[in-house]
């Protein structure tokens, strides 16, 4: 049985600024990313609070992340922001484990890696369509200094507004109305080293042995609510 996250409908306009100032965010379900993978040091396991809202135009997502060592290097689109401090959201526009999902990965420089992931594309292999370059809003706030590990930072936030029009053609399976569900996974990459590619991953739902975070059978469900 898949766990369910209930998404409240936004009752007021949402300004994408990385903050939680709007009244609507106060009624959003706050869920911590409690499942940690590849933890090697005490500072690798830091708290993340995830929230979502929706309205007729957009899906809104917000990450609030504690972080003592804020780190980012990637600046290009379709690069490797997942090797930095990074927020990630995977979406399936149906309440089932389809063999595809939309991926949105963004670091603190707002360098994004967006794709359509195909779990089985040819002879049992998986792959991704990186020509999917959607337009969506992202804003970041940073309480600390990026790439300066001589001091201790407090953390960062990231806020998304992802338009429903990006899913045109797929939204017919589970239209965005109260009571319908989509499958999804929210993740955070936590990078604390200036060199190399070591990082810790935390997720909203358990993903097993962590060999493949793109396995749709590990996704939970989000349910559109009032």
Brief digest:
The protein is mostly beta strands and 226 residues long.
Description of the structure:
By secondary structure, the protein is mainly β. It has one helix and 14 strands; from the N terminus they run E-H-E-E-E-E-E-E-E-E-E-E-E-E-E. Strands 1, 2, 3, 4, 5, 6, 7, 8, 9, 10, 11, 12, 13 and 14 form a 14-stranded mixed sheet that branches. A hairpin with a 7-residue loop joins strand 6 and strand 7. It is globular. The model has no long low-confidence stretch (mean pLDDT 95).
Any low-confidence stretches, pLDDT <50, length ≥5?
A: none
Radius of gyration equals 17 Å
Tell me the series of helices and strands, N- to C-terminal.
Answer: EHEEEEEEEEEEEEE
* Percent of sequence in beta strands: 35-45%
Main sheet overview:
14 strands, mixed
Please estimate the helix content: under 10%
Shape: globular
Structural class: mainly beta
Distance between the termini: 23 Å
Number of strands: 14
Give the tags.
2% helix; 14-stranded mixed beta sheet
């Amino acid at each position: 049985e898949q766990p369910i996250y209930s998404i409240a409908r936004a009752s007021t306009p949402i300004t994408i600024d990385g903050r939680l100032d709007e009244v609507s965010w106060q009624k959003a379900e706050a869920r911590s990313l409690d499942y940690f993978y590849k933890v090697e040091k005490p500072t690798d396991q830091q708290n993340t609070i995830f929230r979502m809202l929706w309205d007729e135009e957009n899906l809104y997502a917000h990450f609030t992340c504690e972080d003592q060592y804020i780190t980012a290097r990637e600046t290009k689109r379709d690069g490797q922001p997942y090797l930095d401090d990074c927020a990630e959201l995977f979406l399936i526009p149906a309440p089932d484990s389809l063999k595809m999902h939309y991926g949105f990965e963004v670091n603190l420089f707002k360098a994004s890696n967006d794709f359509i992931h195909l779990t089985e594309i040819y002879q049992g292999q998986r792959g991704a369509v990186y020509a999917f370059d959607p337009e969506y809003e992202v804003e970041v706030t940073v309480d600390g200094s990026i790439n300066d590990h001589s001091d201790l930072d407090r953390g960062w936030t990231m806020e998304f507004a992802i338009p429903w029009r990006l899913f045109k053609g797929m939204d017919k399976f589970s239209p965005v109305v109260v009571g319908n569900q989509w499958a999804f996974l929210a993740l955070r990459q936590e990078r604390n080293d200036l060199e190399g590619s070591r990082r810790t991953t935390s997720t909203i739902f358990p993903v097993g042995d962590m060999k493949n975070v793109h396995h749709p059978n590990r996704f939970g469900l989000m349910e559109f609510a009032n």
